[in-house]
Design goal:
This protein is α/β, with parallel strands linked by helices. The chain has helices at 30-46, 70-83, 96-106, 113-124, 128-142, 150-157, 175-202, 219-227, 270-275, 277-284, 300-314, 333-342, 357-370, 384-393, 414-427, and strands at 2-4, 18-24, 52-58, 87-90, 109-112, 207-213, 244-247, 256-260, 288-294, 321-326, 347-348, 372-380, 395-402, 405-413, 434-437. The strands form 3 sheets. Strands 7-8-6-9-10-11 form a 6-stranded mixed beta sheet, sandwiched between helices.
Length: 438
Amino acid sequence: MWSSMSEHNLSIVNNIRYLLIGVVTPSQSRSETEEHLSELQLLMQTLGTTATENCIVLQKKIEPATFLSRGKVIELQKYIEEADFGGVIFDDDLSPTQLRNLQQIFGVEIRDRTAVILEIFAKHARTKEAKTQIELATLQYLLPRLSHRWGHLERQVGGIGVRAGAGETQIEMDRRVVKDRIAKLQAELVTIDHERQVQSKRRQNCYRIVLVGYTNAGKSTLLNLCANAEVYVADQLFATLDSTVRQWKLNGYPKILLTDTIGFIRKLPPNLIASFRSTLSEIREADLIIIVADLSTAQCMRQMETVEEILQTMGVAEKPRIVVFNKIDRVDQPILRLARQVYPEAVFISALKHLRLAEFYQAIQQKIEEAMLTLTVTLPASAGNAIALLYEHATILAEQYRGDQAIFTIRCYRNIWRWLGPTLNQINHPVAISEKAM
């Protein structure tokens, strides 16, 4: 019925052992299920729980009432009791009905993958925005699971750690209270989103680069390396959740901002993606996307597929990009050759060991050069406001005055010139500005 993938003599954390269950179906192979369970095990380790055992269940179809077939549920019930597991974690999401029924049958704590991810996010969030987003996602997850079995909900939420008003008072909450709280959080996020839009407008005179990729690929390490950000780094899934923006001074290029975004993962809960819409807007507004991948993991190519799918869903798959395979110090040459065959234009580095960074910087500079314009701009010499804007948002290469005209040779990012050019025209209307690509 199922097969164990780990030893039985596991250490106990908080006196609870968890059985992690993955399902092989006609649409998901055994190898994929094993990969997903290994990742779920890493998620549990991020929560500080190593007392886990993986098992695989073969299913021809998913049962609406109990997810697993009745015979397999009974067999698992016996094994859970004999092996003294304190909880069961499903790698797939369970419906409220499935969760409730399995809770009654197994008699132990039941969680699914979404609950685990939400708990990690709640523990690692630091900013007001992230905490608000995570509490909203948690309550949206819990709302359809509210029932008369408040004891079940208390166990389900126990460690999630949402802000005061959710975690501590969950037993007293009814659907109306939860809905009111959700509405309030949504209103808070609208305000936060507006503040972010204001910040975004302030950054419109910058070239914006974002780091994206699977969780634990090394994005934060790369941010620290490039921009001296000193953000927290750890070899675990979702070590950091809050976007970090830093100025990157790269070989004299004007105003570059480098942003580290939240890591992606397979089966990321849809409501969590939605609640992080303002954070992910950093990706949509970027001029260049750097996709960071962990070449040392056996699931590297599958993780890249997940990243590509998410970027496609966000509508940013066509943006300029650089693929960076990180952690090359942990792999051998055959793996490097294979990755080069699949991604011939990729860059291969070790951010931690500072290997092949020259290739990385060269690739970045090439993309920036493609985004630069060299222009000749003629303005009235008396147009002080326009000239000041030019100095603020462009690099002045040459300047000369001929009578009542000021002639500038400048370098400017294309995205900046798209609004700077019309703005200069508006300031000096009806005097036209002549511009000529050099």
